[in-house]
């Protein structure tokens, strides 16, 4: 085979070009720290990189979600703690007031403090976190408790119009010792009848000129004989409120914390802040301001407050159980983040020690190629003519 000068020149130039290309690749890896800079260099690495990067992005979003969840639940827990403290104070005041040695002025002072505690509890029910009401289910833009609709009384124009069948902005109900009574149709059409879920009734007769209030319920004696009981009530024993006074939105606010795992971050507000919750406190205030109320009647309110306290404690316990689970999920997300970033790095990042070693080796090879090519391509026809 005859080897010509042009063949030597072309081969030398081709090898030098390949050497330059290799140097260019290694130089890019050293400058960027990545194995490839274009998908065409290694489609498999590029495709895996997109999947791994998506996974890392998802985990980072889950971490941000966890921050929002912790903020929401920490605020809820802190608020419920303050609610419990306030109810404990109400209970202490009720125990003091149930002593018949207290005078009317002293009980009136206790009523004022109970009123301030109730208003404080209303403000706690309207707690906002990051611009959102956290005790109103999914309706986070509107306050759940409206003070102007909590205790409208019999003389309220809105209530009277509603009773008379006029169109009003609100519907109304009655609460009595933690029980809600909703209006039902009266068969005779003369009285205004409110009925509870268990069938007890509160009947308003002679409304609105000379209103009498009567409670009707079914009682069972020791011999299991069923009797219909009736008792006349005073106005202070009932609390008339609009249905919109306390929100009943108990829908869950769910945030995704892991792939396909949604966690409710809010409590059930109806289990703590309900119309009967504030109705009981208003009823206690009215009883404390009534000089004719004796100790045994006030003692009954101790059980009422204990019942509301129990509901707060139960809801807080349920919230704490979810917080424990979220802490475990947070640890899992951190571990997934470390693993995902490590896999992404193994797929995309260049081994810098290896790249530097290859670059130095390739540089020596390139210099040797240049030197050998210079010696082979140096002789020409002019060299022989001399």
**Average of the residue pLDDT scores:** 87
Overall 3D shape: rod-shaped
Q: Using DSSP, what is the number of strands?
A: 11
Instruction: Give the low-confidence spans.
Output: none
Amino- and carboxy-terminal Cα gap = 29 Å
Number of helices: 8
Class by alpha and beta content: alpha+beta
- In spatial order, strands of the major sheet run 8-7-6-5-4-3-9
**Relative strand content:** 5-15%
**CA-based gyration radius:** 40 Å
**Element-by-element helix/strand order:** HHHEEHEEEEEEEEEHHHH
Question: In percent, how helical is the residue content?
Answer: 40-55%
Can you summarize the main beta sheet?
7 strands, antiparallel
Give an overview of the whole structure.
By secondary structure, this protein is of the alpha+beta class. The protein has a domain at 146-245. The protein is 55% helix and 14% strand. The chain is built from eight helices and eleven strands. The strands form three sheets. Strands 8-7-6-5-4-3-9 form a seven-stranded antiparallel beta sheet. Strands 1-2 form a two-stranded antiparallel sheet. The protein has a two-stranded antiparallel ribbon with strand order 10-11. A hairpin with a 2-residue loop joins strand 1 and strand 2 (132-133). Helix 3 (104-125) runs antiparallel to helix 5 (275-289). This is Flagellar hook-associated protein 3.
